[in-house]
Write a structure and sequence with these properties.
- The protein has 230 residues and is mostly helical.
- The chain has eleven helices and no strands.
- The longest helix is centred in the C-terminal third of the chain and has 36 residues, at 194-229.
- 29% of the residues are buried.
Amino acid sequence: MSFSQADLAAIWLTIKLASTVTLLLLLIGTPIAWWLARTSSKWKGPIAAIVALPLVLPPTVIGFYLLVAMGPNGAVGQFTQSIGIGTLPFTFWGLVIASIFYSMPFVVQPIQNAIEALGERPIEAAATLRAGPWDTFFNVVLPLAKPGFITAAILGFAHTVGEFGVVLMIGGNIPGETQVISVQIYEHVEAMEYGQAHALSALMIAFSFIVLLALYGFQRKGKIHALSVK
């Protein structure tokens, strides 16, 4: 199995994109998951539905509306132009923003489920010890909900790696800038370069299998640990 320079560039760009998106999603998604797990607001249902929309919407629909919003005449596009950074479509950071929206539920929901599974007792115990909100989160919630955060990171990274429709709509096919693995496979097929397409597809299959194997193994280990603690 051999890869061309363009293939290697696509692999590196995909890893860079997935790593950046996963990190940003953990930072953005954690407060959202915390709020969804603990609120009784009437807005919980609508906000949860918005977060989960990428699970049911076609990627091209998300990509289209993000393209409109970030284009020259869109609200986001006009803002980015006003601060001197131009428009985001067909750039790496445009891909990052699109991927954040598309992979959001794969990060928010595991963290939300982990926080909900904790119940109120650990947080109430921390409050009786006069722990502040930050102390409670970092010293109580984060260690106890760590499996949820790890699952969220794995799923967010893997889902971003496998994106196609959204990245093609927002990024196009610019080598070294927006040409990720999924788009590169499409390019090879369009050019009838089936050998190169097979090599990259086999790599994606192997990656997906390893990710799922690690995820299931981790979840099984977490369940055994939880049972032993009980």
